Every structure is written in structure tokens, then in C-alpha cells.
Amino acid sequence: MSTQSTALFTRKGIVLAKVETTDGTDAGPTASDAIRVEMGANPVSIDFGMETTTEVSGSYDDSDSIPTGAKATITFSVLMRGAATPGEAPPWGVLLKACGFSETLTTTAVPSVAEACASGTTTSATLDTGATGTAQLYRGMPIQFTDGNGGTAGGSSGLSFIADYTSGRVAMLTDIMSPAIDVETDYQILPNARYAPTSLDSDIKALTLYVYQSGVLWKLTGCRGEPTFKFPSGKVPRIEFKFMGIFQARIDAALPAVDFSTLSDPPIFRGGRSLINRAVAATSDITLQTGNRIVQPGDPNAAEGFGVGLLTGRKLSLEMDPLTTLVATRDTIGDLRSGTTRIVHFRMGTTAGNRIAVTVPAGKAVNRGDSEQEGVLRETITIQCSGKDAAAVQITVY
């Protein structure tokens, strides 16, 4: 008979995640590595290999199955909370490191004191010597403009993001600034944590994941995964993760003592920006898919006969459903037929450190359809993120 002290409960779950020094070697995550997640009753799936032979035995009975190697998959989602301090990694940053993303933390503003732009337009700013002249160094970062004249004449103000950055310190912006940026406009790049797809193998980490379910602990090593980012309008943004790795053990273990009380609520996708080609795109839902291809190659040296999860490819794309506009406002079919790439950008949140932005510097429409929601027409658009490392799609916490 089950009792309160012997039954196991779905609510009493905890996930610990820690980067491995050596792929496939247990990193020994502790309570300090806990990540608050959403997971169902069956987050861990083990594919236990069973081999059936055609051996004959003088009877009609099939031969007994022979247990072989096992592969492990774990799925859960996280709310996209930011960090307590701008420039620090968010709680889910460690997970993206095992999904083909590099992490760049900019903990102080650039420059430390706002300085005047050298020149500019409504969509670009040439930064002065307080910024470094390294191409793409600041791509995906938030840049705050202020009117250096105090509003008396000239000067632009407002927040934008850098979609492209040249060695000549020219920053192409995600927004249209009005009035145009000029020498009367001061700029400052804000502290931020930035995640971008990478093909540098040393940046693609493997994780040890401990998954607690009441009094049972699953141990998985060598985990790499595929994230899918969900941004519904007026709701909480989430990342859905699917990891593959090596099954190490399922044992009885007490829950570690963790404290999530200091976590802030995640930002809501409202009062922000949703832009295609710098024009407003009133979407009800945006999904960023990485399309990561994760495999576990056969390896007789491994305990289960299969190695750690390896990233072998990806296909980054956006699914968006903006309200349909006049062709003069947004000509998706024209862009699709010409192969024209556009800047796609959206951001949310009001509290420093707990704001999220996504910048796609080169988005190419590859499919389009029509839909209806509550009697209003919407375009359903598939946008391919174009270029090497998808031309550096940026996920920024600022």
C-alpha cells in the first residue's frame, strides 16, 4: 500500500546541469547547479536495445531477446528568466552551451561613459574611439542612444540593437531612429549576455544531467541537445530542450536542498518590439528552431556501446505569423521570389538584466501562407536564418 512517505510525486523534481571537463565523464553536479525546469512524468526515455535472433531450438518459440546497448533522451523546458545583474549569464545559459551556442558576457558598458557618435543615419551609427574596431564584435548587443544636446537641437535618443558591425566601427541597427543619428547623439553599448550559434568545436560543451524524481535519480553524461525557442505574444517565453546522452544509472537518492526563491519572474512578450526589415510585425507567436542534429555514434569502448551526443548539423529558422499588411508595407512574396534577406528582431522585458532580445541579421523568407485568427488575416512565414553560423543569430539578455 502506498503512503505519503512511500509514494513518488511528479511535483518533487529537480534537474542539475554541469559542463563536463571531459566528454562523457560525470561532472558531479551539486545543488548549486540546479535549474528550475518544467517537465512531465516521463522526462527521461531510455531506448534499451533488445536483439532478437533467428536461432532455432526445435520448437515454435522465438528465441529470448538479448539486452544490448542503451541510449538516453531527456526533455524539459525552461522559462526564459534573465539574470540578477546585467552582463551575467541567465540560469539557462549553461544548457545552450551544450546546444551549439557560444556565450559572450559583457559585464560593463562600452564605453564606460557615453560618448558622441562620429556620424550616423536613421539606420546606422558610426561609433567613436571608445568602441573597438573589430568586425562583428558588438553584433547582437543593445545600444542606447541619448540626445547629447539635451533635446535643444539635433541628436537622437532611444534603444536599438546592432545587427551588423564593421571594422570601421559602423553599427547597422535593427530599428529606424528618428531623428537621424548625428554627432549630437551619444551612444553606449549596455552590459549583456549573448548567445550565438558556433561551429567552433571547443565551444560546444557536453553536460552531465542529474534528473531527480522524488526519491529516484537518473544520471546521464555526455549530453548535447536541441533547443526550440517559443515567444507567444503577451505570454512567457520558453525554451524546449531535448538532450541525448549516455545512461549511467537510475538509483535511489534524496532530493538535494535547492533554493529558487531569489529567481525573478521571466519577462512577458508585451510592450516590446517585433520587427521585420525594421517595420512593425504584429505577431501572435514566434518560434525559433535550431534544427540541431544530434547523434550517438557506435563506440564499443563506451559502457553502453554508444558514445556521447555529437552535434553534426543544424538548420536555424523562424516561424512567424504577423498580421497581413498591404503589399506596399511588407511584400513577403517579392522577398521570397528574389531571395532578399531582411533583418528580423524582437525584444521584451523592462527590468535591466531580465530583458530578452533576438536578432536575425539575415532572414530569408522561404515559405508563406495565409491564415485567420479571430477574423483577422495573418501571414504564416517561414524564415531561414542565412549564412555561416546562420549569419550569427543572436539571443541577448540585457
How would you portray this structure in words?
By secondary structure, the protein is mainly beta. Helix content is 4%, strand content 46%. A hairpin with a 2-residue loop joins strand 14 and strand 15 (216-232).
β-strand amount: over 45%
Helix content: under 10%
Largest sheet: 17 strands, antiparallel
Structural class: mainly beta
The overall average pLDDT, rounded, is 94
What is the tally of beta strands? Answer: 26
Structural domain count: 3
Number of helices: 3
Structural Rg: 24 Å
Q: What is the 3D shape?
A: globular
Q: What string gives the helices and strands in order?
A: EEEEHEEEEEEEEEEEEEEEEEEHEEEHE
**Low-confidence spans:** none
Distance between the termini: 52 Å
Write a brief structural summary:
With 398 residues, the chain is mainly beta. It has three helices and 26 strands. A hairpin with a 3-residue loop joins strand 7 and strand 8.
Question: How do the strands and helices of this protein lay out in sequence?
Answer:
Elements: E1 13-19, E2 34-35, E3 44-51, E4 66-79, H1 93-96, E5 101-106, E6 110-116, E7 119-120, E8 124-126, E9 142-147, E10 158-165, E11 170-173, E12 185-189, E13 192-197, E14 207-213, E15 216-232, E16 238-252, E17 273-276, E18 279-280, E19 283-289, E20 293-295, E21 310-313, E22 317-322, H2 332-338, E23 341-348, E24 356-373, E25 376-385, H3 389-392, E26 394-397
Antiparallel strand pairs: 1-2, 1-14, 3-4, 4-16, 5-13, 6-12, 7-8, 8-11, 9-10, 9-12, 10-11, 13-26, 14-15, 15-16, 15-19, 17-18, 17-23, 19-22, 20-21, 22-25, 23-24, 24-25, 24-26
